[in-house]
């Protein structure tokens, strides 16, 4: 199994206890304690979730990926878990220079997608 894993709501290991242990490791290496009432705790949780589960995509998010050496773009339709990790069904934008200007639906592993800044709904 490789990263990213299944989404955290399917993974009971992604818990407050895990975050506390990571917090303790940071302290042992000289970093300050991350208080669980602080926004830094939410940031730690988000950073760990990003590493373990990959980027969190939602319906409507604009994304890009490389296919046949060309950058493709589209909007996420739905995201689902698979044994190999999360995948997204994407409604592609008409691609410049492509013979067909119709939209196409494609499925890509979330780890292969890049969010387009400001491209969300």
SSE inventory with pairings:
Layout: H1 16-28, H2 39-53, E1 62-67, E2 70-82, E3 85-92, E4 105-109, E5 114-115
Number of β-strand runs: 5
Order of helices and strands: HHEEEEE
Mean pLDDT: 81
Fraction of helical residues: 10-25%
- Specify Rg, calculated over alpha carbons: 18 Å
- Give the neighbour order of strands across the main sheet: 4-3-2-1-5
Low-confidence stretches: none
Oligomerization status of the protein chains: single chain
Helix/strand class = alpha+beta
Q: What about the largest sheet? A: 5 strands, antiparallel
Shape: elongated
> How many domains make up the coordinates?
2
Give the strand content: 25-35%
Number of helices: 2
Question: What is the CA–CA distance across the termini?
Answer: 32 Å
Features:
single chain, 2 helices, 28% strand, 2 domains, alpha+beta
Q: Can you characterise this structure?
A:
The protein has 2 domains: 11-54, no CATH class; 60-113, no CATH class. The protein has a 5-stranded antiparallel sheet with strand order 4-3-2-1-5, with no helix packed on it. The chain contains 2 helices and 5 strands. The protein has helices at 16-28, 39-53, and strands at 62-67, 70-82, 85-92, 105-109, 114-115. A hairpin with a 2-residue loop joins strand 1 (62-67) and strand 2 (70-82).
């Amino acid at each position: 199994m490789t990263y990213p894993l299944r989404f955290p709501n399917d993974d009971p290991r992604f818990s407050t206890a895990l975050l506390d242990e990571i917090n303790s490791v940071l302290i042992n290496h000289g970093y300050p304690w991350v208080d669980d009432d602080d926004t830094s705790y939410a940031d730690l949780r988000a950073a760990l979730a990003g590493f373990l589960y990959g980027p969190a995509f939602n319906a409507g998010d604009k994304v890009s990926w490389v296919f046949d050496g060309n950058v493709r773009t589209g909007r996420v339709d739905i995201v689902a878990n698979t044994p190999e990790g999360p995948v997204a069904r994407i409604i592609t934008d008409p691609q410049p220079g492509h013979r067909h200007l119709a939209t196409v639906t494609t499925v890509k592993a979330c780890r292969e997608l890049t969010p387009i800044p400001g491209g969300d709904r």
